[in-house]
Each structure stands twice: as structure tokens, then as C-alpha cells.
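Appendix B, Record 12. Input sequence as logged:
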Amino acid sequence: MYIKNQTLNPTTPVQSVDTPQTPSLTPAAIVEQLRAISSQLPEATPMTPDQRETVRNHARSARSGEILQTTISLVGTTDAISTPVGHDADGVRQLCDDSNRWAVVEDELRALLNGVSSANLVRRQQLAVIADTAYGVGVQLLRNPEHAAVVPHVLELKRLKGLARRKKAVTTPQTPIPEVPVTPKA
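Logged structural output:
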């Protein structure tokens, strides 16, 4: 939410004097670490939205613990089932366990992304407050001839703000309607 002339500050926990502080990472360092982690995850290949939807729809039944336990029992019953499936009961159990452990990783990554995104949103809001304040002060300074250096900057900001307020024209390609000859009905 944008609040004019007010800056949102995320709360930070207070550390005691005895607690050693870890140095803050730069965005470039974090990107480097994320890429290093990503390179170690061969299974983490991006999918298109359509692919994700298809896989998600097919995997819905795997969310039921009862279905999974019954499937594991079924696979463990005979080689006639485990061979075409390509996994024995222990392999299916391991895959289920892996899925649950990676779900925790997913949750942590979502929380991290939410935190990073929220912090950046606060930065953008702070920049908007700075821009609004600078423009307001600049408009006030225009009244005094000794501040003539601000005139081109304030006028440019005024022009840019006017452009930003305009609604962009929606351009949709006009497809011609084919003319079908009308034949009178008899």
C-alpha cells in the first residue's frame, strides 16, 4: 500500500551486545549463491505454465496420504506390479519421503522470496516518498529566482508525471469481418 509522505519500516529484531552479527550479503553475492545452489540441483528444471498445470493436475492424487500408502502396499505385493511401475515399495516410500522433504524447501524458499519482495517493495515506496518530497520542495523553490537551477528539473518531472497519469490507449488489432452474401430465403 502506498502511503504518501510516510515510510514503512520493516521491524528488525534487536540483537544483544554479546551476539555476533553476521555481515549483510549484497544482492550480487546472494544471486551468486543462489546460482551455485541451482547448479547443484539437476532436477530443478523450469517448466512452462502449461507443463506445470498438466503435471499438477496429474499429481493431485499423490497428495492423499491414504492413496499413497495403499499404492505402496500394492506395489510391494508382487513383481507383476513393481516391474511395470519401475519402483519397488521401498523406492516409492523413498520418493514419497523426498517429496515431503522438498516441500519444506519449497516453503522456505517462498518465505525467503516473500521477505525479499517485501523489503524491495518498501524500498520502492521510500523512493516514491523521496520523489514526491523532492518535487514538492522543487515546486516551492521555483518561486524564488535564486533557485533557477531547479527549473528544468521540476518542469521535466511535471511533464513525466503528466505522461504517467495518462491512460495508455488500448490498441487491439481489428480483424475484418468477412462479408457473407445474404441470400433471401424463399
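The first helix runs from residue 27 to 39.
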